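Sanity check

After download, print the first record. It should look like this:
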Amino acid sequence: MKATLASFYHWYLETLAKGRDPLHDDRAKIEACVSKALLRKIEKQINSPDGLDEDYFTKAQDYLNDWATNIVVSDVNTHGGVASAIVTLGVTKESKSRLLVNVVQERGSWKISKVSHPPLSG
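Expected structure tokens:
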């Protein structure tokens, strides 16, 4: 599951860096990595009057250059067919971004089911 998340974020950020839209330009890849329910939710939000005010997978309005080459997956917790992990993008204090990524087993593969900001640690 760690390798799946690291691979997804590397591909996703590289695709953005090339000026492409990962959700629409490589639909097969996004469907291989993201649950059907989450894709429906994102599409519904994109098509709503409010749209998306940030990228769903990075929880940011823009991406930083060092994110695609600095991806760390940690704090993996697995409970049967669901799991969560912290994905840290970036390497410097200014560029680091932490995400809580939930995944589910769908047709034998781990797929992203939710991305959020992790709770602040004390």
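If your output differs, re-run the checksum step. Summary of this record's structure: Strands lie at 71-79, 82-89, 97-106, 109-116.
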